[in-house]
Design goal:
alpha+beta, seven-stranded antiparallel β-sheet, 7 strands, single chain, 22% helix
């Protein structure tokens, strides 16, 4: 059965984001955040998706940590007792396309597991934290 995702279940492609949240260029580390609160099933679906991706060490805010990579996206997952936060990073001319594509993939997985929809947040381009150094 092919079910259509509700528009709010994923981050719909929006090139206008390049004009919001500080200056943007093809070198900018663009970050999309997916959050879930109080739904262990959704948090586990995110953890399972991350575990299936390739991973390598990278520098985030000056500290080395493992990050996953999938196509034009890199990121990491932080889980707590309250939920999970998935940080998706991309850059280059296809940054926004890549983020939208993977938000759809992730939302489909969450939906297939019966999880609650994620909250998607566009991070500012000029933010001071969660800076991923791209190889």
């Amino acid at each position: 059965m092919n079910r259509t995702l509700p528009r709010h279940a994923y981050w719909p492609l929006d090139y206008g984001w390049s004009q919001r949240g500080g200056p943007w260029s093809e070198l900018t580390d663009v970050m999309l955040i997916a959050q879930t609160q109080g739904d262990e099933g959704t948090a586990q679906a995110l953890a399972d998706w991350v575990a299936r991706q390739g991973s390598e060490p990278a520098e985030v805010d000056g500290c080395v940590r493992d990050v996953f990579y999938a196509g034009g996206v890199r990121g990491y997952l932080d889980k707590t007792d309250a939920g999970a936060t998935l940080y998706l990073h991309s850059h280059g001319e296809d940054a926004f396309d890549s983020l939208s594509h993977y938000s759809r993939q992730i939302a489909k997985l969450v939906q297939s597991r019966g999880g609650m929809p994620l909250t998607w947040t566009e991070a500012r381009h000029d933010r001071a934290d969660h800076q991923l150094s791209w190889p």
